[in-house]
Write a structure and sequence with these properties.
By secondary structure, the chain is α+β, with helices and mostly antiparallel strands. It has one domain: 2-Layer Sandwich (Translation Initiation Factor IF3). It is built from 3 helices and 4 strands, in the order H-E-H-E-H-E-E. The longest helix has 12 residues. GO terms for molecular function: RNA binding. Keywords: RNA-binding. Pfam families: CRS1_YhbY.
């Protein structure tokens, strides 16, 4: 049995946020959170023009009733 920390570390990115911003991925994120425990998100440079990774992850979490588990570099992990 792997620990929660190990499971988060081993996650593959399943959602990418680009120049269309976070509004373009809210529905997809919501669906992924319905189907899996954690979702790892990568924020491309164009998306980060709207704010840093932590700000963007927090806004996505609020819009999907989720929790930010971790941010590191340009990636974030959310759970619900």
């Amino acid at each position: 049995m792997s620990t929660r920390k190990q499971r988060i570390h081993n996650l593959e990115v399943t959602l990418w946020v680009g120049k269309r911003g976070i509004g373009a991925v809210v529905d997809e994120l919501d669906e992924q959170l319905d189907n899996q425990e954690f979702v790892k998100i990568k924020f491309h440079r164009a998306a980060r023009a709207e704010g840093d990774t932590e700000e963007l992850a927090t806004e996505l979490a609020e819009r999907t009733n989720a929790t930010v588990v971790q941010t590191r570099g340009h990636t974030a992990v959310l759970e619900r």
